[in-house]
Specification:
The complex is a heterodimer. By secondary structure, chain A is an alpha/beta fold. Chain A folds into 2 domains: 139 residues, 2-Layer Sandwich (Nucleotidyltransferase, domain 5), CATH 3.30.420.40; 170 residues, ATPase, nucleotide binding domain (Nucleotidyltransferase, domain 5, 2-Layer Sandwich). Chain A has 10 helices and 10 strands. In chain A, strands 3-2-1-4-5 form a 5-stranded mixed sheet, sandwiched between helices. The longest helix of chain A has 26 residues. Chain A is globular and about 65 Å long. Chain B is α/β, with parallel strands linked by helices. Chain B is built from 4 helices and 7 strands; from the N terminus they run E-H-E-H-E-E-H-H-E-E-E. Chain B has a 7-stranded mixed sheet, covered by helices on one side. In chain B, a hairpin with a 5-residue loop joins strand 6 and strand 7. The longest helix of chain B is centred in the N-terminal third of the chain and has 11 residues. Chain B starts with a strand and ends with a strand. Classes of the chains: A alpha/beta, B alpha/beta. Chains A and B meet through helix 5 and helix 7 of A and helix 2, strand 3 and helix 3 of B.
C-alpha cells in the first residue's frame, strides 16, 4: 500500500510518500518540505504564512515527492492531509487539494489531526515503539504530554498553560539579543555555559503534568533588567544565561515526564516536535529512559519539525484501524474544547 | 471621543481584578489592540479577561498567529502580530474576516507592529513596565 500525505497547517508545505512494510509499519519513500532550512524546523523563523505560498508550492511538491519516491499517482491507495489545528488559510490549501485529488482519482481520503501526526512520529525511525507509550510533544506552537495506549486511544496528561516550549526559546533568545532562530542559538551558547549559574524558576502548577514558560520568560527579563540596566549583555555572560534558561526548560519538561512515569506503567517514551531537535533535551529524556528501564524513541531531525511523513503515517494508521474515506470532513483551526485526548486522572 | 481608564498593578491577581473591572467596557464586535514589550503580560491580560468569561484554556498565539475560543455566547479571536512580516501576509490569514465578525471580541498582541491594519474604532490596552516591577495598564477606547 502506498500513502500520500500533505501538510500545510502553518509555515511549511510538505508532501510525503510512504509504503507499507508490515503491520502498522511503513517505509518513508519521500518527505519533501517547502523550506528545507533546518533552523526553521526548530520552531519559528521568518515565516511565510501566506496561503498563496502554499498554493504555489503544493502541486510541484506533490510531483517532486512522487518522483523521489519512484512511484506514480496511480500507485497511491490512500491520500491524507492535515485538517487542523492550524492557520485556516494555510490548512485549506493542502486539505482541499488532497480532498479534490482523492475525489478525482477515486482514492481513499483520510483527514489527519496535526498533533496526532506528531504523537506517532516516533514510529518513523527504524524501530517500532511499544504501547502504552508516554509522548512529549514540544514545538513552536504546542507543548503537551500524552499517554498513548494504542493508535486510537490516547489521553492528554498535561499541556502548557501559556507559551509553548519552542516559543520560549525564540522569545528569550530575542530578549538576550541572540535573535532568530532561538532554539539553535541558545543551544550553541549554552554549550559553553554553566546551567546552574542562574537559578531560573520552574513554576509549580495546578495540573501535575502541566508546563508554564511565561514565568520563566519574565524571570529572564527581570534578571537582564537587574544586571544589565542598559540592556547590553557582554558576550562572555551570554553562555551562562543561555545554559541556565535551557536547563530550566528541560527541568520543567522532564519533571512532568518523571511524574508520569511514576504513575503510569509504560513501555516506551517518545519525544517529538520541533524542540525535540534540542540536544540536551534529547539527552535528558534518554537518560530518564535508561534510569527507568523504558525505551526512548526520538524521531530523526527531518521528522521533528512539521512534515508530511508524520501526517501520511497517521492517516495510514487510521485507515488500518478501520477509518474509511471521509469526504465530508472539514478543516478545523483549533482543537475542540472537549472530545479530543480528554485529560485523565489516576488510573490507566 | 476617547475614554481612558488606568490601573497600576503588581501581581497577577491585580491584573485579574482590573480585567474584571473592564468586562462591562468591552462588547462583541470590539477590536482590542494590546501594546507592550516582551514579558509585559499581554497574554496574561487576555487570559485574565477570558477567565472572567469562563474561558480557561488561553495560550499564546505567537506561533499559531490566531487562536479561537468560544464559551456560551462568547467568541474570542486571539491574534498575535509578532511573527507577521508584512501586511499582505496578515491579510492572507483571513484577518479582515476575523476583525469584522460582529459576534466576536478580537484581541491583538503586538498590535503596534501593523498599526495600519487596525480599525480607527478600537480599544487599546497599553502595558508599561515600571522600574519597581509594577505595571501600568491603560485602557483607551478610540472612536476615530
Amino acid at each position: 500500500m502506498i500513502v500520500l500525505g500533505i501538510e500545510s497547517s502553518c509555515d511549511e508545505t510538505s508532501v510525503a510518500v510512504l509504503r507499507e512494510s508490515g503491520e502498522f509499519e511503513t517505509e518513508v519513500l519521500s518527505n519533501v518540505i517547502s523550506s528545507q532550512d533546518f533552523h526553521k524546523l526548530f520552531g519559528g523563523v521568518v515565516p511565510e504564512l501566506s496561503s498563496r505560498a502554499h498554493i504555489q508550492q503544493v502541486l510541484p511538491l506533490v510531483k517532486e515527492a512522487l518522483k523521489k519516491a519512484g512511484t506514480t499517482l496511480e500507485e497511491v491507495e490512500v491520500i491524507t492531509a492535515t485538517a487542523g489545528p492550524g492557520l485556516i488559510g494555510a490548512l485549506l490549501v493542502g486539505f482541499m487539494f488532497a480532498k479534490s485529488l482523492a475525489l478525482a482519482t477515486k482514492k481513499v481520503f483520510i483527514p489527519v489531526n496535526h498533533i496526532e501526526g506528531h504523537i506517532f512520529s516516533g514510529f518513523l525511525g527504524g524501530e517500532k515503539p511499544e504501547f502504552p507509550m508516554l509522548v512529549l510533544v514540544v514545538s513552536g506552537g504546542h507543548s503537551l504530554l500524552l499517554l498513548v495506549k494504542s493508535f486510537t486511544e490516547f489521553a492528554r496528561l498535561g499541556t502548557t498553560v501559556d507559551d509553548a516550549a519552542g516559543e520560549a526559546f525564540d522569545k528569550v533568545s530575542k530578549l538576550i539579543g541572540l535573535g532568530y532562530p532561538g532554539g539553535p542559538k541558545i543551544q550553541r551558547y549554552a554549550e559553553r555555559g554553566n546551567p546552574l549559574a542562574i537559578p531560573f524558576p520552574v513554576s509549580e502548577l495546578k495540573g501535575r503534568y502541566d508546563f508554564s514558560f511565561s514565568g520563566l520568560k519574565t524571570a529572564v527579563l527581570r534578571y537582564v533588567e537587574k544586571h544589565y540596566p542598559e540592556r547590553h549583555i557582554p558576550e562572555q555572560d551570554l553562555p551562562n544565561i543561555a545554559a541556565s534558561f535551557q536547563y530550566a526548560v528541560i527541568r520543567a519538561l522532564t519533571r512532568s515526564v518523571k511524574r508520569a512515569l511514576k504513575e503510569y506503567r509504560v513501555k516506551s517514551v517518545s519525544l517529538v516536535g520541533g524542540v525535540a531537535a534540542n540536544k540536551p533535551l534529547r539527552e535528558a529524556i534518554a537518560e530518564i529512559g535508561n534510569n527507568q528501564n523504558v525505551r526512548v524513541f526520538i524521531p530523526g531531525f527531518e521528522f521533528c519539525g512539521d512534515n508530511a511523513a508524520m501526517i501520511a503515517f497517521r492517516g495510514y494508521t487510521l485507515y488500518k484501524s478501520g477509518y474509511g474515506s471521509d469526504f465530508e470532513a472539514e478543516t478545523f483551526p483549533a482543537l475542540p474544547e472537549a472530545g479530543w485526548g480528554e485529560i485523565v486522572n489516576g488510573e490507566q | 471621543m476617547t475614554k481612558e481608564i488606568s490601573k497600576t498593578v503588581l501581581t497577577e491577581f491585580d491584573t485579574l481584578n482590573f480585567a474584571k473591572e473592564l468586562i462591562p467596557e468591552i462588547e462583541a464586535g470590539d477590536v482590542i489592540a494590546l501594546i507592550g514589550d516582551l514579558g509585559s503580560g499581554k497574554t496574561y491580560f487576555i487570559k485574565a479577561f477570558c477567565q472572567c468569561l469562563g474561558i480557561s484554556y488561553v495560550t499564546s498565539p505567537t506561533f499559531t498567529i490566531v487562536n479561537t475560543y468560544t464559551k456560551g455566547n462568547n467568541k474570542i479571536y486571539h491574534f498575535d502580530f509578532y511573527r507577521i512580516n508584512s501586511l499582505s501576509e496578515l491579510i492572507n490569514t483571513g484577518y479582515n474576516d476575523y476583525i469584522n465578525d460582529p459576534e466576536a471580541i478580537v484581541f491583538i498582541e503586538w498590535a503596534d507592529l501593523f498599526k495600519k491594519a487596525l480599525p480607527g474604532k478600537r480599544v487599546e490596552i497599553i502595558i508599561t513596565m515600571n522600574k519597581d516591577h509594577t505595571r501600568e495598564i491603560k485602557f483607551i477606547r478610540r472612536d476615530e
